[in-house]
Specification:
Blueprint: H1 2-16, H2 23-33, H3 39-54, H4 64-75, H5 81-86, H6 88-91, H7 98-108, H8 130-135, E1 143-147, H9 152-161, E2 167-170, E3 173-176, H10 182-185, E4 192-194, H11 197-201, E5 213-216, H12 223-231, E6 236-241, H13 244-257, E7 263-266, H14 274-277, E8 284-288, H15 302-306, H16 310-326, E9 336-340, H17 349-357, E10 362-369, E11 379-385
Parallel strand pairs: 5-6, 5-8, 6-7, 8-9
Antiparallel strand pairs: 1-3, 1-4, 2-3, 9-11, 10-11
Family: Belongs to the class I-like SAM-binding methyltransferase superfamily. RsmB/NOP family.
GO molecular function: RNA binding; rRNA (cytosine-C5-)-methyltransferase activity
GO cellular component, one term: cytosol
Amino acid sequence: MKAINQLKTFQRILGEYPADTPLSKFLPGFYRQNKQMGSTDRRVANRLVYNYFRLGKALPDVPEDERLLVAEFLCNTQTNSYLQNFKPEWAVCVGFSDDDKLALVKTAYPDFKLEDVFPWSSQLSDGIDKEAFLKSFFCQPDLFIRVRNGYDHLVKAELTKAQVVFKDEGNGCYSLPNGTRLETIFPKQHWFEVQDYSSQQTGNYFKPQRWDSWWDACAASGGKSLLLHEDEPNIKLVVSDIRESILANLDERFQLAGLTKYQKKALDLTQNIDSVMHDYAFDGIILDAPCSGSGTWGRTPEMIAQFDNHKIEFFQKLQKSIAQNVVKYLKPGKPLIYITCSAFKGENEDVVDYLVTELGLKLEGKAVLKGYERKADTMFVARLSPPAI
């Protein structure tokens, strides 16, 4: 009976879910309207819904309840009451390797193809292991934090006290089980920042110097700026974003981190901004460009169902437009750090080629940050610079 009720709840959620809304925004509202659901009910519903979307676009003609069983089998390593009730022959095999489980699914559903989970694998950036990338969608990414300098021992002590299993990834980065309730372990959170492993690795390309002037051009909530400031506190910092609301979140985050000296601007970087920025010349610009976010869809698998191929071209045009408008404010020989959380070549290497061939920048280094290898996001970073005089 419990498993049947879980299936009914899943079907209700799927029936009410508006396809263009993030699950993280929709599900809390659904639970508020269904207060009879306890914490266990919500946790199971979350698992079922997210796992269902992890199947991507595979088996499109199979009924929803059967697709859910396939997803539950592929996305879990320990048996649960749902599988035991509806597919007991798979429940006993849930601890098998990915390849063995995929073979069992293929036997039951001959039309199943791994490449259908993410049907754009031919457009992935160079060096991405397509099979490993596709299989990573069956596993929820970890939660990563970046501990501020000097607080490592305190964070480790509190995590140990709370009996949270964590891994020290080096350089102040810790991986934790996704869903760890940091707000209950650290009521006054100022010892660390929540930031994905790959996002933290982009900081290796910044290399700021003391008293440099830097611009975080698409700052969002300021994660890259905080990474930059931790590396070199004595920089002059300008942050901008098109969304004033998210800049308010940035203010709050900066305040918690003790970053108080910075300039903030609401800018549309697709437009001419000379009237605001004509007096500025920077020693470094971080362009964390708007993108498809395809490297983060392990966290938001519902985005696979919402994605259309033409969006790659849309974002590429947007990225080129923004880059063209910001590089003019770089001092000669100083770095532009181009970052995306996309796995698509069209948003990564192809844009870098444009920056080199059309804007005359010199490529100093680039990398695909293969987060799929360590339960993290997959990202892209490049360091370029205009010619030195």
